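Running co-folding for FE2/S2 (inorganic) cluster.
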Amino acid sequence: MSTISITVNGQQKSGTAQGNTLLVDFLRSELKMTGTHVGCDTSQCGACVVHVNGESVKSCTVFASACDGAEVTTIEGMANDDGTLGIVQQAFHEEHGLQCGFCTPGMVMSIADILRNNPQPTEAEIREGLKGNICRCTGYHNIVKAAQSAAATMAGARQAAE
Ligand code: FES
Ligand code: FES
């Protein structure tokens, strides 16, 4: 066992982990942050996506020990400071981008990453960017619409700030 310290959603957190403890298990079991989901044991579903030092990562593929000292953003960090839904979350709500919601944390984190790297993606680019995320419910159509809606909202916010 060793002590792992990470900054999660801007807050310093510490906990103990074994050498083979996965980041997703550290978040869920040690830090009690259960917004990040585990949907498979084959690294395919993407329900566990978080951002580590600004990069989108499947947290079931990374050891917690490798993240010691890292900055991690989880779905809990995607809301606005006042607790209202963040832009991507709000877009999911408005476009009916979820049904059971199991895939949604990973979808939101992946779309945030897509839009950070490509603020105005085409539909094809959104679908390509979501290849690592599986949804069993929606047929993806409304998830893509949510990504497009979030991109439009972010573009509007950028224009308003200019
Ligand atoms: S739980 Fe990580 S990819 Fe499925
Ligand atoms: S909304 Fe159910 S798995 Fe995507």
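Result summary
The mean pLDDT is 97.
The domain at 87-161 is CATH 1.10.150.120 (DNA polymerase; domain 1).
Job closed.
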